[in-house]
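Bug #2210: C-alpha cell dump truncated for ATP-binding protein?
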Amino acid sequence: MNSMITMGAIPGGGPAQMDLGELLATRLLVQGNSGSGKSHLLRRLLEQTARVVQQAIIDPEGDFVSLAEKFGHLVIDAADHSEAAMHAAGERMRVHRASVVLNLEGLDADQQMRWAAAFLGGMFEVPREHWYPVLVVVDEAQLFAPAVAGEVSDEARRASLGAMTNLMCRGRKRGLAGIIATQRLAKLAKNVAAEASNFLMGRTFLDIDMARAADLLGMERRQAEAFRDLARGTFVALGPALYRRPTTVRIGAVETASRSAGPVLAPFEPPSAPVHELILAPVPVHDLPPRPRRPAQTPMPDLLSQLAAHGEAQASGALNGDAHGQSDAGADDRPAEQEEDTSPQSRAEREAQMTAILRDMLADEDQGFRPAPVLYQDFLVRCRIAALGRNALDMRRFNRLLATARSGVGEDTAGSPDWQQAESLASTLPEDIQAVFLFLARAAIERQACPSDARIAQVYGTVSKGRARRLLGWLEDRNLIVLRADGVGRRVLTFIGSGWETLPGAAEG
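Reproduced locally. Full output below:
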C-alpha cells in the first residue's frame, strides 16, 4: 500500500509529499502565527488521510466539524457531556475504530483542558488488542500543554499536560500519532514539543519563536529572519516523513471549509438615523432577549442504569410496605434520598457503607490508576444500586473519602487525635496529593516501615517511581516532611511539627 500523500507543491519544483507510514511513527509539530495557514494545513492533512487511517481531532474552536459531512467523522459536542463520558468516548472510539472530532467550543479554558485530558486518557488506556493506528490532531496545543501556569486550576493543567505528554512520549507504541499545532512555540511545553521529529514551520514574527523554530530545524540563527517573509499557506518542512533538509512547501487546496472564516472587508455604510437614538435608547425589560440555553440531552439507557433503577425500586418497596405486608395507597412518593434518616447513627451507617463500596472498588488494581472523575461516576452508580440515593456524595466529599480509603487507615487509627490532625493538614494540600500525604502519615503514626517508591506511586495512581520521588521532594520543599537515611542506607520519614516518624524502609521495594 502506497503511504505517500500530497500536501501541496514545492515552489519551482514538484509535489510536496509526506510519508504517512513514517508520520505514524515519528509525530509532527506545526507552528505559525494566526493567519499563517495552520488550520488550512491540518485540514489538508486530515482530508488526504481521512479514508486511509482513523483520526481523532481535539478542536477547541469547532473549526473541523465540517469534516463530518464529507468524511463521516463523529462530532462530539463536549459541552453536552460529562468528563467521565469523555473518558469513555476516548476508549470506545478506538474499540469501534471511528474517526471523531471533539468539539470543545462552548467550554471555558479549565473545562477544555479537563475534558481533553479525559478523552486522551481514554484513548491511551484502551486494551492492547485495540491499539490500531490513529492520527491524533490537537489544534492550539499551547492551550493543552502550556509552558507556564496560567489562570486555570492546577488540577486541570496537570491533567491536560500529563495527557499531552503521554500522547507525544508514549503514544507511538499504542498506535497514537500526535500532530500538534501551535501559534507560539514559546508558549508550548518544551517536553511536548521536543518529542516531535517532523516540523512544518510557518510565518512568525517574534524573535523568541523564530529562534526556537530555527533551533528545531537545525538552521543558523541568522537564517531565522526568513520566517517573517513566508506567505500565508507556505511552510518550511523537515523530518523523516517530509524532507531531510529544510524545504519550503506550499500547501494545496482543501475540499471542506471551516465554519469560522476570517473577516471579509466590505464597504462601510454609516447609519442613517442618529447614533445616540440607536445605541442609547431605553430598553424595556420585557424586550430583553432570553439567554440561549443548550437543550438537555437525554442519555441512552444502559445496563448499569437499569440495575440501579431496579435496586431503587426494591428499596422503595421495602420502605413503603407496612408491618402487615400491605401497601399504603396514600404513602409519600418521595425519592429514597429525600427520605434519608439524618440521625447520627444513620449517617455513620451510610458513611460505613460508602467506605466499604469505595474500598471494594479500589481492591481492583486497575481502578487505582483511573482518574478521580471516572471513579466518582462508578461510585455513584454503585451507591444507587445499594439504595443510597442518586447523589450520595458531592465531588469534594468523594475526593476526601477517596484519599482516606487510599491511605489504608484502620478504624483504630482513624479515631485517634493524631489522625484528625493528619486529616486537617491534608485538607490544605492539593486534592491529588492528599491520598499520598495521608498514606505516609498513617505509616508514621502506626510506626510502620517507610513505604517504597513503588508503593507511593501506586497510591498516587501511577507506575512511575520517579513521580513518587518528586512527590516526596515536593513535600520536603514545603517543610512538611524530612527524609533521612539510617546506618545501612534505608529511608526514614519524619513529619515536621508532629514528630511522627516511620521505621527504616527500603526505597526500592
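Output looks complete on our side. The two ends are 49 Å apart (CA to CA). Marking as cannot-reproduce; reopen if the truncation happens again.
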